[in-house]
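hi got a favour to ask and not much time before my train. below you get a single protein, a line of residues and a line of whole numbers that encode the local backbone shape. could you go over both lines and see whether the tokens make sense for that sequence. a few lines back from you is plenty, here it is:
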Amino acid sequence: MTLQDTWTGQWVTDRLDVRLDGDPALRDLLGLALRRNPRRAHLLVSNVLGKHVPQPPATVHGAGLALGARVRDLLGPEEARRAVVLGYAETATGLGHSVADGLGDAPYLHSTRRAVSGVEPLGGFEEEHSHATSHLLLPEDPELLSGSGPLVLVDDEFSTGRTVLNTIRALHTAHPRDRYVIVALVDMRDADQRRHLADAAADLGARLDLVATATGTVQLPPDVLERAQALLAAGTAAVPAPRLPGGEAAQTAGSAAAAVTADPAAGLAPLTRAVLDWPADLPDGGRHGFTPAHRARLEAALPDLGRSLAAVLSGAPRRILVLGCEELMYTPLRLAEALSTALGDGAEVRFSTTTRSPVLAVDHPGYAIRTRLAFPAHDTAPEDAGPDDPGERYAYNVAPGTDAARRFDAVVLVVDHPADTPALHHPDRGLTTQLRQLTDQVVLAVVPSHVPQRGPRQGTGKHLPNVPTQAAPLP
């Protein structure tokens, strides 16, 4: 096996004996990394999600479109027209949008971890194994989830079933319906978890289907948490620091093996603000709901938006990264597709987003998270940060590390207005500062953040019960 053929989970498997069993396609879809989370040591790193691993935008959007088409075929034309899609923050916000695209005319909503002033949550729930657990539901239309048609719930992975089951129980209490469809890129439940979910669906008196790209299980040794903590504590001891384009080794921060710390004295690439003719009153995503009419308006605007971004790029960059911001995944993804079309075959456009998730970086071809940028949170005022907010954000596999072929000639950073703050441009650690050290040019595109015209209480929809963390424990 050559280095190029090395599976990006092999490093973790060799050291922790964590194994993926099931569909052969799992190794194409997933790599492995170590997360800084005392409740769950490993991270399944998707190769098609566009979160941690930059990928061609057509690959990312296509994965969701394919799942949406399967849901449409499963439901049939009449049921598909009545369906509503709900995605999970932060990782599956773009995937859920893409599933809704593939389904057809389904409205879309995703949960959020960003409270919005003046908008009261319709409900919320907890994600038990996550580093940041609280989810809010903030639909502009309080009746969005009140229909009787199928509800399609989309997450990147289906690992235990707790989060989805907690959500279904809360929604079913307020608005009972006959059918739910769970969609994920990978279904990694064991036999007991599968039986438990089937029993829960029977108790609700509803049909529950599951659609996944691949299925399997994660085999974990009994002492995996202890062994992972030892590796995390070792940090950079056994891993060489990556090389920056100038040839000097990057400084590491904490125990992140391939983190990059900005040097204010270093030369910085130019930062250009792109002026996008964003359609008036078009939501920037599904935080407050995204309707079929919104989708049609976005599709019509995308070609011009792509050409606008292409016009801002100077020279003829070959490798370009479009980098989204946490929950803001779908709009940057579609802009990346439009930019790729505008530039043509001479450019290689990739897409990924920043994240709250703290993960160990190891610059090794058998590990999924090669490099890490760590920077201050720039979308939440310190006084508004919740107890589960780490106060730091990350961008993975953006820095080239030891492999010069991984370097991007240009980075297009897409954020919404609330995320365009002084912290984003901090002269020492800000994300734009660090990006300007790693590439030849940085383009900042700021899209308007949609503000709902009314809060849920002004409608007639029922408020959903908040679901406690320990609701419906699984065996």
Q: What stands out?
A: The domain at 237-447 is CATH 3.40.50 (Rossmann fold). The two ends are 39 Å apart (CA to CA). Residues 57-81 form the longest helix (25 residues).
